[in-house]
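Hi R.,

As promised on Friday, here is the backbone we talked about, encoded as C-alpha cells. Could you run it through your design pipeline when you get a chance and send me back a sequence?
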C-alpha cells in the first residue's frame, strides 16, 4: 500500500508503503457520506515525524485490537512510526493493523486517530482490512485498548482517493475526534508499483454522536 500524507498542522509529508504483490482487480466500492476533500496533497520529499513541541498532549492508552463486527473485521493493532525516508510503516502481516503513534490515539478528545492495514499479502490472500469495502454507514467499530475500556465508533463515510491525494484532514491533530481506517484500493498497476488508490473509512465516536 502506498500513501503520501501531509499532516495539516505540522505541514509534514509522510508516505504509507505497502505490498505491491496483490492482484485484487475488483472495482473500488461505492463511496458514501461526507467524502474527504479532493484537493491534491503533493509530496514534497521525505520528512521526520511532526514535532509535538509547544503542545500539551494527554495520551490515551494504545489501541490493541480493532473490530468491525458487521463485516467480520478483527485485527490486532500495533503502533507504527516512520522510516528514515519519512514513509509510514505498515505491519507486514495483513492480519495486523498499524496505529500511527505520532498522531492521536483512538479515544482522544480531538483529531484523527489513524489505523492502516494491507488489503492483501504477498500470496494474494486478503487481509483483515479488505473487509472495509463492505462497511455501511452506521456500522460499529470497536477499538480495544491496553489497560482501558474499549471505545466505540460508528462509520459515517467511505471514499476512494488516489494514493497521492489523501487529504491532510486524514492525519489532523485537532478538531472533532474521528477514527480513520485506511487500506489499498484498485486498480492494481504493477508498472506503477502496485495499487494506485486508497480506501478511506471515517467513523465518529458513538458518545459524540449521541451528545448532539
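Update: got your reply. Pasting your designed sequence below so it's all in one thread:
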Amino acid at each position: 500500500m502506498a500513501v503520501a500524507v501531509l499532516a495539516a498542522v505540522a505541514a509534514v509529508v509522510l508516505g504509507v508503503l505497502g505490498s505491491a504483490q496483490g492482484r485484487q482487480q475488483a472495482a473500488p466500492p461505492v463511496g458514501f457520506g461526507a467524502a474527504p476533500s479532493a484537493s491534491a496533497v503533493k509530496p514534497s520529499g521525505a520528512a521526520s515525524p511532526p514535532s509535538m513541541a509547544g503542545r500539551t498532549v494527554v495520551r490515551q492508552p494504545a489501541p490493541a485490537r480493532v473490530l468491525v463486527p458487521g463485516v467480520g473485521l478483527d485485527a490486532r493493532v500495533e503502533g507504527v512510526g516512520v522510516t528514515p525516508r519519512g514513509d509510514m510503516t505498515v505491519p507486514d502481516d495483513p492480519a495486523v493493523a498499524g496505529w500511527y503513534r505520532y498522531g492521536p490515539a483512538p479515544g482522544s478528545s480531538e483529531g484523527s486517530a489513524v489505523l492502516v492495514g494491507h488489503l492483501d499479502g504477498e500470496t494474494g490472500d486478503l487481509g483483515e482490512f479488505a473487509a472495509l469495502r463492505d462497511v455501511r454507514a452506521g456500522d460499529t467499530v470497536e477499538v480495544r485498548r491496553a489497560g482501558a475500556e474499549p471505545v466505540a465508533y460508528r462509520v459515517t463515510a467511505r471514499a476512494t482517493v488516489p494514493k497521492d491525494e489523501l487529504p491532510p484532514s486524514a492525519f489532523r491533530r485537532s478538531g472533532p475526534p474521528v477514527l480513520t481506517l485506511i487500506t489499498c484500493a484498485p486498480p492494481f498497476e504493477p508498472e506503477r508499483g502496485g495499487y494506485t488508490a486508497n480506501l478511506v473509512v471515517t467513523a465518529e465516536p458513538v458518545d459524540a454522536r449521541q451528545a448532539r
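One thing I noticed while checking it: Confidence is low (pLDDT under 50) at residues 1-24, 35-56.

Thanks again,
M.
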